[in-house]
Amino acid sequence: MKPLHIVMENFGPFIKETIDFEQVETDQLFLISGKTGSGKTMIFDAIVYALYGMASTKTRKEGDLRSHFADGKSPMSVIYQFKVNNQTFKIHREAPFIKEGNITKTQAKLNIYELVDNQFELRESKVNQGNQFIVQLLGVNAEQFRQLFILPQGEFKKFLQSNSKDKQSILRTLFNSERFDEIRHLLVENVKQEKVQIENRYTQIENLWNDIDTFNNDELALYKELESSQTDKMIEKFPQFNDYGYKILKSFEDAKIKITKELDDLNHKYKVNVELSENTKKLKAETIKFDELKKEQNYIDKLNQELKMIQESKVLITYFTRLQSLKKDKDEL
Questions:
Q1: Model pTM?
Q2: Dist CA 269 CA 277 (whole Å)
Q3: How far apart are CA 43 and CA 21, in angstroms?
Q4: Long-range contacts: 24-30, Cβ < 8 Å, 24+?
Q5: Where does residue 316 fall: left (phi above 0), alpha (psi -120 to 50 degrees), or beta otherwise?
Q6: 3-class DSSP assignment, residue 3
């Protein structure tokens, strides 16, 4: 933010004072000097008041800024022009006060303008919204503005005369460095937590390392004597455990394949034996039936002979019947 122009009315020791900062050349330092009580600090109070409605220090309130020389009918006001981000703004702020002859305060006023095409256009005309507009425009609130841009005179004198410990305390107050202590405390706590987690990890690693199987291998058993803190050496030896374990696993898988094949062969042979046993039983039953039939062979042969004779008799009967028919026909003829 670059100040351009400020007008103070009934503000501090000033009834009406105008300061044109544009007369200061670019990138040049300038000094505001004067006797004590002449109003040097009031210039900074006016800037902070125009922006935030407060003085440049916490010890002075808004009512302390009104001039003792002001009449009872004129308000305290500040008109402040400044440039930020290549934009020019003008703020006109009036403080509430009790007019002579009245018992109630007048309302505070705040108007914020922006320079557009060489003309000031109104951006905000309400106090609360205007205060928020300024905070968003500058990116800092009143307390942050005081700490970053204003070093109060009393605090600086106190700082010069104090010892190192007190200076540290004053600097913390001026620059609100307590947040860095909070960050440091947070980092310390994080380090403690990380340390506890690391110790827990080492304990887990030690437990897992003790549980790892050596497969009855003397060389691997020797590696198990490593401490849990020797993680680099553990990582170096892990491939040997994996390789040896893989070899054992491969041998068991090959044995499993061989046993599975033998089991399949045995199952096939068992099924063949069961089928053979069933066929043997059936053959035995058929043999018994055959032997029983064989015992009746003579009777069957006799029956066959009789059947043959019956069949021959049928032929003879047919011939005889035909002969009788022919004889009858002959007799009739």
A1: 0.49
A2: 12
A3: 12
A4: none
A5: alpha
A6: strand
